[in-house]
Amino acid sequence: MLIRTLPLSNGNYGGILQAYALQRVLVDLGLSPVTDLSVSNPLPAWGRTLARLVVRRLPAWCLRSRPAAEALDSVLAEELAEPLREFVSEHIAGTELFSRRGVVDPTILSGFTTLLVGSDQVWRRRYGDVRSFLFDFVGDRDVRLVSYAASFGQDHLEGYSPRLIRHTAALARRFDSISVRERSGVSICLQRWGIHAHQHVDPTLLLTRDHYASVGARGTDLSPGCLTYVLDDSAHGRACVDAVCDVTHLSETRLHRRPASYPQYRSAPAEYRRADVPTWVRAFADARFVVTDSFHGTVFAILNNTPFVTIANPGRGSTRFDTLLDTVGLSDRLVTSTDDARTAAEREISWERVNEVLERARDDGLGYLRAALLPHSVAPSLRHD
């Protein structure tokens, strides 16, 4: 079985952990999954090394050009992602489906009779070629096509032209079973693709808190009080963090700090070095409070029963937060102002109720995967309208 998700080479904690969780769950079901680890950077390894050497030596006046800026961004992203690669290589069985950008290796593809796409925002146009995440390169109908918790990222088909909607609808109708992560995704599938989809939680929620404790045991102890994992720096976000730290009387431990530029990073690389995956996981378990604008930051606060506040981040896809928090009855933890942040920080959470909901959602997701993927199981219906 081959799993396709957004490229793990991007160095995204949530993307890596959802891929890890989905693969681990499938192994526990007795399957032999392999994840496509094709890199998002089309350059070969030697080309990426050469690019790093070149951009480090560019004169200042070159940095203002668009090609140079794009090269710098690519090199910066790759260097920041370095601490996360060890976890991928150790814990995620993988192959490279694409021999080069946009070209599938037919030899590798022929080795799989089941293809599964998910999770993450694989069907969000701005993040990649959605047709490839609907397996447009598969012509053999004997191949089983399934999705699990695939996401559109928004509550509408952002960036889809009428032609692309028609094409993706035809591709989606070939699937044996379709599962989406957000409730809005169910509506999109019905209204724009004419199919009935099932809604399930993110793969990270299919594993238990105890499982992640074993992952985090290898991480560094940061002893966080108020752990902040904020992806988009802004005055508003800073004000919300300060408000929560003030209310909780906790000092801040920052888990994410992105340099504004590659030269800034090179001037103090240790200051911007990212935590490895086990340390990231452990931080959410050890924290006394969490402030984040990240979807998976919110997920891991909930998994660990750590009180949290999530700063609304519409640019990254608000519908993801809406479904997640509404599912566990914590919609009031999503804040848009410092006053909301203060109020939410003072409010206690009934974790017993949250954990009961998570257990039911976990059982539902595992039940879907069993039915969709195991021999002799009855797959969930995929009706066409």
UniProtKB/TrEMBL annotation:
Keywords: Transferase. It comes from the Bacteria. Residues 12-313 form the Polysaccharide pyruvyl transferase domain. The keyword Transferase applies. GO terms for molecular function: transferase activity. This is Polysaccharide pyruvyl transferase family protein. The lineage of its organism: Bacteria, Bacillati, Actinomycetota, Actinomycetes, Mycobacteriales.
